[in-house]
Queue: 2 jobs
Job 1
Amino acid sequence: MKYNKKSVEDINVTGKKVLIRCDFNVPQDENGNITNDKRIVASLPTIKYLLENKAKVILCSHLGRPKGKIDMKFSLKPVAESLTKHLGFPVKLASDVIGESAMSLASSVKEGEAILLENVRFHEEEEKNDPEFAKKLASLADIYVNDAFGTAHRAHASTAGVAAYIPAVCGFLIQKEITIMGKALENPKRPLVAILGGAKVSDKIGVINNLLEKCDTIIIGGGMAYTFLKAEGLEIGKSLLEEDKTSYALEMINKAKQKGVKMLLPTDVLAADTFAADSPYIIADCTSIPEDKMGLDIGPKTIQSYTNAIHGSGTVIWNGPMGVFEFENFSKGTSAIANAIANENGVISIIGGGDSVAAVKKLGYSDKMTHISTGGGASLEFLEGLELPGIACLLDK
Ligand code: AMP
């Protein structure tokens, strides 16, 4: 999907009330303290740009899953406090989303100031994308800015519905996501190497299919590799298998051949006795995985061949770990891939959300990657070539 959307820089915001949909869905401890404020920090460039350009800023977000009811456990109060610290002036929190408090604060917000609405998911209308709710939310502002990539694949009132009523553009976070990922898919620096891992084939069906249209090499690792090996007629012992996806896997193997895409599957694995961190394991060739063992990571030969494939690549898109990286003994494959990408000179590296992001961060390679997507589900749908409602609704350039 190629998006060419207007951003905050393409619209006059001075003196205008601007509703920004942010992703303030931050992790909290049992006392409600924010344990990691990276999402808040990531939203600051867009917010500051609007403040500097004398907009009247109205912020909104969801937090957790209050299931359409007011539940103060999911209040955005800690977010308002964090924003106050980061922005250096008091960010007032409305006690509702579209009620009297929101309307009164939104009508009194001054140029260069910001207020925050309560959790949009306190209303069940939010996730239902109820038009009346979206209209009321939109009525608080003159312009809508979506900067929450993590929810851009959802057609909710605050992520898409509001755009039907007021001019809608993207913030810097979404702009970066669609520019970098869009280019990687539509006009990549070649060779384009796609690396897919993680637990299940079924989660990545659309992604594999779409990337086979675009990439030069596709590398398959993680639990899903075993369904591919089985499809090739190999015995995989007790490794993860999605029996009903073997014919799909075979179809993808054949599609790769037809398209001239190099598909790399594991040739050896770490085969463990049980699914446990301290399980004994052996290095097994994929032609002879013992009946009573399960592959929990790629083996040294496979690491070498995958590393070789990354070497010399122009663009790498990576989604999903190569093994059960949560267990130290079975994290070597994932670390080796992260290491190879991080140290590849001149490569455009895109880490597409979820567990591969966690792995890259854990290894301290975040700064060495071109782009780490801020949305797991949204980046998968983007790679799948699906339309993201939270982006499709924005004004075209
Ligand atoms: P996903 O959310 O689809 O990216 O999958 C990530 C999960 O896949 C992680 O929790 C990994 O532990 C798991 N995983 C990776 N490789 C394997 C494997 N060989 N067997 C079982 N689970 C795996």
Job 2
Amino acid sequence: MQISGAWLDAPATQRVLGLLSRAGHQALVVGGCVRNALMGVPVTDVDIATDALPDTVMELAQTCGVRAVPTGLAHGTVTLVIDGQGYEVTTFRRDVQTHGRHATVAFATTVEADAARRDFTMNALYSRADGTVIDPLGGIADLRTRRVRFVGDATTRIHEDYLRILRFFRFHAQYGDPESGLDAEALAACAAGAEGIDRLSAERIGAEMRNLLAAPDPAPAVAAMAQAGVLARVLPGAEAKALTVLVHLEAGLAPDWLRRLVVLGGATSRLRLTRAEDRALVKLRDAIATSQGAAELGYRLGAELGRTALLARAALLETPPAPHWHSDVQRGAQARFPVRASDLPHLEGAELGAELRRLEARWIASDFSLSKRALLG
Ligand code: ATP
Ligand code: MG
């Protein structure tokens, strides 16, 4: 099996692989980049695996004039930076001792050993610099049937690292077969280990949930999470049901993880949202609780959040939005309230605020048509 792609042929990729292989080491691209290339999905980051020890990687890079940053020496990772792009080079390793999240690592010399410590067979795929794929665990076959399969025994692998529970659902949402569902045994192992999720950092949970909810259709994976008792651990109080409706209503719009999140509801303290995300979520939840129409939502929230609020509310109420909602939101987003505080010089403070809001409500009720004169007259 061969892969190809601009990311693999790129001089920088070839340079990193070459500086290792010329010194007699194995140098392979691994994981997401190989998986995505095989699936015809864009490759975002290129990870490299080698039998060279981290110190050797540092030395070889420096000899070749490539900047090397020891970003994760404890787990064998050195980042090589070429033309502003970082390449994570990780020494083959096997996990020897685990504490449910942080494994103590031992370096390994074979690609087979390295493959055995990875999470899913579709992520344990490697390629040489010329695009020849190495598939120690049958990952290609699983990729063809779109089956997310744990490397080794699911229960054991989950006890080594509970993040793998979330990754299981995340990869299913991104690459799994929605028709055939999730592997029953793996699902049972996730359900049995769900409590371990409480030990994970909010940062890690948030990162996996962002990826999961940004998949084209995350609804089947989220429904399975709910059934396995996993959803309640990451989003206490969330309800999976409306997500299916939302995805259906979204038809044609780019996936937006926050839109999906708002429909799920639940407490977000286990996700570590950014402040901007937090603010947007509060606005959306407030807007959804109102009966404001499409144009008003567009006016009050702007086009993007307005669309999100409208669709989320429609999904929660299981009622499709009115036919022209898209252009109505847009129209509202472009409308400018014609009255300023300076138009009401006789008022100040709370009175001024109340009058501006009253006039604004009249103007919105007129579908943004009343002029300043009409409003003030
Ligand atoms: P993406 O395209 O979303 O980045 P990815 O496969 O590159 O997908 P990463 O999280 O970047 O995923 O991890 C890179 C690789 O490292 C994975 O493909 C997998 O082989 C391995 N890996 C990452 N996290 C784990 C984990 N918790 N347990 C075992 N292996 C892991
Ligand atoms: Mg990656």
